[in-house]
Amino acid sequence: MRRFYTTAAWKRFSAMKARYAAKRHTSKWKNRKRSRIAVSYSVFREKRRRAQQPFIRLVAPKQFSLISNTNEVLKYFESAERMFAKGENVGFDISEVEILTADAIALLVASIKDSDFTHGGNYRGTAPAKPELNKLFMESGFLEHVRHDWNDAHINKENLLHKEDNFKVSPKIAKSASLTGIRHVSQNSRPFEALYEILIECMSNTNNHADLSSAGKCKWWIYVYSNPNEKVSSYSFVDVGVGIFKSAVIQDKIKQRLKGTVLYPNIKLVPELLSGKLQSRIDKDNALRGKGIPQIIDHSKSPRFRSFYIITNDVRIDLKTGTSEQLNHNLNGTFLHWELVK
Amino acid sequence: MEIADKIIIAKDFADNLGARYRKDGENSGQQFLEEILQAKFEKAAKGNYILFIDLDKVWGYPSSFVSGSFGKLSTTHGGADVLLKHIQFKSDENPIRLEKILNEIKNPRKV
Description:
The complex is a heterodimer of chains A (342) and B (111).
Chain A: H1 2-5, H2 8-24, H3 27-52, E1 55-59, E2 63-64, H4 70-85, E3 89-93, E4 99-100, H5 102-112, H6 115-118, E5 123-125, H7 131-138, E6 160-164, H8 171-186, H9 193-208, E7 220-227, E8 232-239, H10 244-247, E9 248-249, H11 253-258, H12 270-274, E10 279-280, H13 292-300, E11 305-318, E12 323-340
Helix pairs in contact in A: 8-9, 9-13
Chain B: E1 3-8, H1 9-13, H2 29-47, E2 50-54, H3 63-76, H4 79-86, E3 87-90, H5 95-106
Parallel strand pairs in B: 1-2, 2-3
Helix pairs in contact in B: 2-3, 3-4, 3-5
């Protein structure tokens, strides 16, 4: 026994233990411990406070469609976010909507599953009262991403709602999303190159336009809705990052500072965006990059796309007509929507 | 010069191509370049023969994939003249696709 306590290994171990004990008695160590406990307690206290808060009912616009009623819908989401930021809980009431489209469902699910939007708040919601809209909502796959007690919810096999958590470009999902739409509109499985390429470029742009601190960590959602009444599949791609214009870097320093203000609104950057000249905050291979958006613009002209829109920050671009519109409200991220026909 | 080697992209790599870098996700242009294209091209250039590339049976050629593979090879291996001397493409399904890749090899940088 005595022999063990005199070994070099024991002496090393004992010195290490002594150093650790001494460190634990320093004021730096104690302060850090105290502040960690305080932070975790304040998080717990905030969660408890939120759980006791009532839900503030927020009635959705009657025309709940991001594409045809962009300003109203964005205003709705802006007010929800403001409430969450103030520490309120929000009840999304879509029971009275008269028009509901797939794009609004995609934005709703992407927003409430984004912690930057909810600020840790609680949310709940209602389903549309109108039977056909209720069916659209129940079959969208929305309820697979939230806790609910509806028994009749199931995703229609002709729809696809996917959330990418790995922050990556997923060729598997692009292929599956392409197939979902093509099978519905053409009843075959023949590849449509433009559609597949658009999907990959959308995913790829999500990474490129993520905010600096989270480059490559941005989440995206895709929702493919196959309209049972006509041979049309609508695609909604939501990237809950910071948006193309907010992440853009302009060489002119004055313009860069004024970007997004009344003096230099984002809409002025649309031509640069469409020609692929708007640079995102990625420096590697910049000379080779910038062909993704022009490829999307080019493909959007195909007659197989009935409509094609990009909404990012406070600008809405109709790629079919080449027109853009300054919005009164902001979308934190990028939203692409198009309709595939035969 | 005769054809002495070939790449069938759908069979030898994947039919669902990805984006530019490996970090972007699977089946990227960088992965294709580093695992298949570059080595085969260098062998073809050294052995003075033609590398045949079959572009068919693929879901699509995203511009970031094309730029990250063929565009990158063009910038690092002597440009379009050298590349097109040793590479021959085939695309029966879509001639525009072929044009797109040739254009990327000739003009890999933004204009």
